Amino acid sequence: MGEAARKKILIVEDDPDTVEAVRLVLEKEGYSTVSAPNAEEGLKKVKSERPDLILLDVMMPAGTEGFHFVWTLRKDPEPGCRDTPIIVLTAIHESSPTKLYPEQSDGTYGPYEYLPVQGFFDKPVALDKLMVEVKRLLAGGKKE
Amino acid sequence: MSDRAGRILVVDDEPGMREGCRRILVSEGHRVTVAESGEQALGMSEKGAFDAALLDLKMPGMSGLELLARLRELDPDCVYVMVTAYATLETAVQATRGGAYDYIAKPFTPEELLSVVDKALALHWLRAEAAELRQAAERNLLLVATEQSRTRTIIQSMADGVMVTNREKMLVLYNPALLRLLGIKGKAPELGEPPAPELFPADLLAMMEEAYSEGQATMVARELRGGPPNLAANIAIIRDEAREPLGLVTVIRDITEVKGLQQRMGDFVQMVAHELRSPLGAIAQYLDVILTGVTAGSPEKERQILARCRERTGALSQLVKDLLDFSRIGHLNKVERTLAPLALEEVLQETVSFAAGPAAAKRVQVTLELLEGLPAIEADREEMRRLFTNLVDNAIKYNREGGAVRVAVGARLAGQQTDGFVAVEVSDTGIGIPRGAIERLGEAFYRVRTADTLQITGTGLGLSICKQIIEAHNGHLEIESEEGKGSTFRVLLPRSGAGAVK
After folding, report:
1. Average pLDDT over residues A100-115
2. What ipTM does this complex have?
3. What is the C-alpha separation between B370 and B424, in angstroms, rounded?
4. Which chain B residues contact residue A25 at CB under 8 A?
5. Nearest chain A residue (CA) to B311
6. B264 or A142: which carries more pLDDT confidence?
7. If we measure between CA atoms, which residue out of B473, B477, B407 comes closest to residue B442?
C-alpha cells in the first residue's frame, strides 16, 4: 500500500457522480486523486499535478473533447507529461467506428482511426477489472 | 320460305299483276302494299317504310327505272326488285346498274316470286343487322375512348411520377410528374424508345434492368441516390402466364419529407438515449461502489451516495415527464389548447407560491411585482402555468445562495415599448449565461456546461418546452444575461385582440 500511496491519478470526467465513485475506489486502494471536468482543465492539471495515470472520459460534451485531450497530450514537449498512461472510460465504443487501440499486436494500425491510449473500459466501469489494469500500468506494464 | 314477315311494296299498272302478287305474298304472311303508278308509290314511300319492293319496269307515265331511282332516294334501305316482261340481258343489267338488287321475269310462278322476295328480304335484314352492329361498335369505341381519356387525365394529374415500359423495355407511357421529379427538362423522353441514360438516373435504370430479369418477384422498391428531392422508386412487374415480364409500371415518389421526419426522429432517439445514459451510468457506478464493499464501514458515505442516487433517479423521472410534454406540445402539433381570457396575475401568484419550497432550500427570495395597467390576454391556463413554473424554477436553480428572483408583469417594463403585448420578466441574481450559450438555449437537451453548472441537474428540455408554448401563443422570448451577475427572461404575449393565437 505504501507504494500505491505515492501514485497520483487524474480523473478527467464531466459527471461529478462518476468522478466521486471512481475516486472512492481509487482512494480505498491507497491512490491519491485529482479531477478535472473537461479537456482544457484536464491538460492544465496534467502540468500542475503530474499524475502517474489518467482516467479519461471519452463522451464529454462535444464528443471530440476526449480525443482532443489525448492528441494534445501526446504532442507535449515534456516526456513526463507526454507519455503518461491513459485509460479511456467510454460509453460510445459500440456505436463509434473509431478504434481505441491498434488491432494487431505487432503495433501496426488497422484501417480506422487510432487513439494512442493504454486501455479502455465501457461505462459503467467494472471496478475490479479497472483496479487490475490501473495496478498493471502503474507497475510499468505495456499493453500486450 | 321466309319465317319472318316483311313489308313489301308492289308497284304495277296492271291490276291483275298487283292482285296476283299481293295474294301470293300475303299467303306467306308478308304485309303488302300496292300502288298502280310511280306517283302513287312515291306518295307511299318514306325512309324505313318498306323492307322490299317489286317494281314493274315498263309503266305508262313514270318508268320503272326512274321510279327506282327516286324510291332509292326516299327509302334507301329498301331492297328493290324489278319486274320485267322482257327478260333481256340488257334490261337486267340496266336495272342492277340503277340500284336494283334483282329482277324477275314475267310470267313467273308463285314459287319464283317468293324465292326472289325471300332473297331480297334476307339481304335487307342482313344489312340492317350489320348497321346495328356497326353502331354498337362505334358506341363502344366512344366509351373506351372516354374511359381512356379519364384514365389518362387521372395519370396526368397524379403527384407521383408514373412510367410504363413494355416487354421490349421501351417507354410506353409517362406523366408530367415523372419529368418534374426526375428533373428532366427540355427534350421529352420519346415513346417507343428505351428510357434514355442521359435523362434517367443510372440507379433507376439499373433497378428496371433488375426488375426485367427477376424470376418470381412482382415488385422491386428502393430509394434512389441523390436529391433533393429524395426519391423512392416502386416498380411493379407485370408477368404473363409463362411468368415472363410483359412490362413494368414504375412509380416515383417524393420522400423528402418522410426522410426528414425519419432523420429528426432518429436524432431525437439518439439524444434521448444519450441523456438517459449519464444518470443511469452514474447510479449504476455508485451502486457498484457500495456493493463491492468499497464503502463498507462508512455508513455516512453510503448514505451520501444513496442520496445522490435518489436525486438522479428523480432527474430521470423528470426527464420522462419532460419528454412526454416535449413530444406532446412540439412534435404532435395537435395539442388541445383551450384559449380563454386569462388573468395572468393569478397564474403568476400560484407559480410564485409553489416555488416557495425550492426557494427556501437555497434561501432565495422570490418576489412578484404586478405593475399597473395589466391588459387581458387569451391563453391556455395549464400551459401558462407550465411556462412560468419552468422559468421560475430555472431562476432558482441557477441562482446563488441567498439570491433573489423577481417576477414582474405589466404593459410597460423598464421603459421598454411593448405595445400590443403583455411582458412578464423573470430575473435572477444567478450565475448568468455565457455569451455563446444564449443562442443555444431552447435547443432540445442543450444544457450549459461550466464548472458552476456541473452539480445542477436538469433535462435540457425545460426551455424548449417554454419556447414551444410561447410560439404557440404567438409570443416572443427575450433573454438578457451577464455571467456572474444574473439573467432576465422576458416573455412577451399578445394582448387579446392584438393577434390571433394558433
Report:
1. 53
2. 0.83
3. 9
4. 289, 292, 294
5. A17
6. B264
7. B477
Indicate the fold that domain B340-494 takes in CATH: Heat Shock Protein 90 (3.30.565)
- Nearest chain A residue to B448, by CA: A61
Cell of B80: 328493290
Contact B285 A22 (CB under 8 A): yes
Dist CA B375 CA B411 (whole Å): 7
CATH 3.30.565.10 residue ranges in chain B? Answer: 340-494
The least confident of A13-22, A106-115, B205-214 is A106-115
Cα gap B375→B410, rounded to integer Å: 8
Our CA angle for A64, A66, A72, nearest 5°, is: 95
Domain B158-254 has CATH 3.30.1330.30: no
Interface of B with A in 424-453 (CB under 8 A): 449, 451
Residue A107 pLDDT greater than 70, yes or no: no
Tell me how far CA of residue B485 lies from CA of A49, B425, B456, in angstroms: 32, 16, 18
Residues of B in contact with A24 (CB under 8 A): 289, 294-295, 301
Which fold, B7-132? Rossmann fold (3.40.50)
Q: Scanning every residue of chain A, which has its alpha carbon at the shortest distance from the alpha carbon of B270?
A: A95
pLDDT digits (tens, 9 = 90+) for B97-110: 888 999 888 889 99
Q: Alpha-carbon distance B490 to B410, whole Å?
A: 11
- How far is it, in rounded angstroms, from Cα B77 to Cα B118? 16
Task: Give me the residue from B278, B281, B292 closest to A127, CB to CB.
Answer: B292
Read off the pLDDT of residues B163-178 as tens digits, 9 standing for 90 and up.
Answer: 999 999 999 999 999 9
For an interface test with A, give the residue of B285, B291, B308, B310 to mutate (most A CBs within 10 A).
B285
pLDDT of residue B300: 94
Q: Out of B282, B449, B451, name the one closest to residue A18 (CB).
A: B282
Architecture per CATH, B262-331: Orthogonal Bundle (1.10)
Cα distance from B498 to chain A (closest Cα, Å)?
43
Of A85-89, A140-144, B175-179, the one with minimum mean pLDDT is: A140-144
More confident residue, B461 or A11: A11
Reported confidence tier of residue A96, pLDDT bands at 50, 70, 90: low
Domain with CATH 3.40.50.2300 in chain B: 7-132
Between CA B36 and CA B444 the distance in angstroms is 108
The three three-digit cell numbers of residue B365, written as one number: 427570495
Domains and CATH numbers, chain A: 2-138 (3.40.50.2300)
Low-confidence stretches of chain B (pLDDT beneath 50): 1, 498-502
Which residues 260-319 of B have a C-beta within 8 angstroms of A? 277-278, 281-286, 288-289, 292, 294-295, 301, 305, 308, 312
The β-bridge partners of B482 are B486
Q: Outline which parts of chain B fall under CATH 1.10.287.130.
A: 262-331
Task: Determine, for residues A128 and B292 on separate chains, whether the beta-carbon distance falls below 8 Å.
Answer: yes
Per-residue model confidence (pLDDT) at position B499: 43
Chain A residues with beta carbon closer than 8 angstroms to that of B301: 24
- CATH 3.30.450.20 residue ranges for chain B: 158-254
Q: Which grid cell is B305?
A: 451516495
